[in-house]
């Protein structure tokens, strides 16, 4: 009986949190179109998010291209389809693997960082001090970070995809004696706009989800250092779940409009 009550209570809290997150998102869309606009803070946050994640995304993309090609090559050679390697790898990385993997990597880097930063500001009452002084902390802290994550993640995903394809081309050059020029000619022949457009559009939603959940968890952080840790951890968990949901919806819609 106690377990059933606990499960029902957890379900109730889950839906309450979804409702609070929805109101948080609604407030963001109201604030983002109202003045004043914090352009300097937006640029600073965009630079910090992209610059600090660049090496991590690059290394992840390079290893992704290497491993994916090394794992796929023996199977394709067994069926005499090694020549399809550039097409298969490029479409898989650009359409699905690259955006999802890089978004998950950025979740651990960006979303947890936002949750910890805003959580620390909430615990040390810096946000309360901004409200007392007449400054709009939501506009300065939340709107700029969500916008920065939304704008920067597509660029990071494109960068990661390019590095992943370079890693794949390197394996093909060493293992299959395929020149880089031939490899990328086949890549550009295989990739279509129906592969690029859906992947680019959903990357904006990935960035929005990363910024939104990170800001939500940090902005409403509980008191104490334990609350900061919980805000950072739960931001990563909730964002990861949300990314998979967004990805499923994006693939379902793409299948309807682009017939992939």
Tell me about this structure:
The protein has 260 residues and is mostly helical. It contains eight helices and no strands. Helix 3 (85-123) packs antiparallel against helix 5 (137-175). The longest helix has 40 residues, at 39-78.
Nutshell version of this structure?
This protein has helices at 2-32, 39-78, 85-123, 126-132, 137-175, 180-190, 193-219, 225-257. The chain has 260 residues and is mainly α. The longest helix has 40 residues, at 39-78.
Spell out the blueprint of helices and strands:
Layout: H1 2-32, H2 39-78, H3 85-123, H4 126-132, H5 137-175, H6 180-190, H7 193-219, H8 225-257
Helix pairs in contact: 2-3, 2-5, 3-5, 3-6, 3-7, 3-8, 5-7, 7-8
Helical amount: over 70%
Order of helices and strands: HHHHHHHH
State the end-to-end CA separation.
Answer: 48 Å
> What is the helix tally?
8
Q: Rg from C-alpha positions? A: 21 Å
How many beta strands in the DSSP annotation?
Answer: 0
List keywords for this structure.
mainly alpha, 87% helix, 260 residues
């Amino acid at each position: 009986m106690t377990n059933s009550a606990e499960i029902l209570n957890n379900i109730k809290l889950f839906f309450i949190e979804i409702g609070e997150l929805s109101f948080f998102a609604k407030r963001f869309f109201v604030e983002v179109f109202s003045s004043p606009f914090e352009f300097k803070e937006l640029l600073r946050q965009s630079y910090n998010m992209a610059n600090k994640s660049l090496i991590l995304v690059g290394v992840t993309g390079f290893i992704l291209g290497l491993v994916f090609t090394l794992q796929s090559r023996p199977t394709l050679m067994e069926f005499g389809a090694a020549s399809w390697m550039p097409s298969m790898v490029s479409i898989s990385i650009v359409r699905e693997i690259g955006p999802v993997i890089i978004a998950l990597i950025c979740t651990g880097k960006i979303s947890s960082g936002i949750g910890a930063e805003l959580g620390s500001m909430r615990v040390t009452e810096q946000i309360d001090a901004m409200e007392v002084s007449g400054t709009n902390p939501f506009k300065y802290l939340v709107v700029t970070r969500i916008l920065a994550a939304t704008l920067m993640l597509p660029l990071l995903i494109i960068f990661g995809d390019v590095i992943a394809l370079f890693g794949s081309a390197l394996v093909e050059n060493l293992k299959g004696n395929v020149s880089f020029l031939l490899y990328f000619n086949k890549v550009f022949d295989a990739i279509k706009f129906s592969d690029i457009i859906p992947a680019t559009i959903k990357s904006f939603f990935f960035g929005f989800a990363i910024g939104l959940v990170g800001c939500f968890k940090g902005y409403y952080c509980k008191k104490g250092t334990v609350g900061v840790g919980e805000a950072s951890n739960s931001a990563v968990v909730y964002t990861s779940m949300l990314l998979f949901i967004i990805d499923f919806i994006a693939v379902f819609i793409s299948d309807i409009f682009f017939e992939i």
